[in-house]
Input
Amino acid sequence: MPDYAVLAVFIPTFFFVSITPGMCMTLAMTLGMSVGVRKTLWMMLGELVGVALVAIAAVLGVASIMLNYPQVFDLLKWVGGGYLVYIGINMWRAKGKMAVIDSAQVNTRRASLISQGFITAIANPKGWAFMISLLPPFINVDSPVGPQLGVLLGIIMITESVSMLAYASGGKSLRLFLSRGDNIRWMNRIAGSLMMLVGVWLALD
Output
């Protein structure tokens, strides 16, 4: 299991990145408003499965490099930390526009909703890059990888579920809040600041 210092950094960082409006969160909000929260849960199921697969693949792939080529891992820490800083800078510079999803094109069958959430999660290159950059440095190769991955994955699943449920149930009120002034921009800046701090911490740790 990761130590408490690691969790104290990981939990707030992933929470703010997760709650920031993106394709999955906007999709959850759009579906919640158009077909209801109950049907949106099927999309959330597919998205969670997709996120879990991306996270597991990222950790196991990089963990194998960590075990066999420790020098390469030192380089990956710097590259990953630099990439997180880069993401943080881009989030600060973001103009704060929400992704637009046409609810009229949404197929409300369960299988379709599940597949839509799953594809949205695994087909996002930024999601892959983020998981590869952020997750592996939180893994201690001197301890069993499985329990650590299980804890981090559990945090990710809970955070994603809470975030999507908030967007799905928030509906018009949340959409109105996000459309006002610089609310999205400030959310991006909070998440971006955390990303930059974690990037520096991972590179120097």
Remarks:
- The chain is about 80% helix and 0% strand.
- The chain has a mean pLDDT of 75.
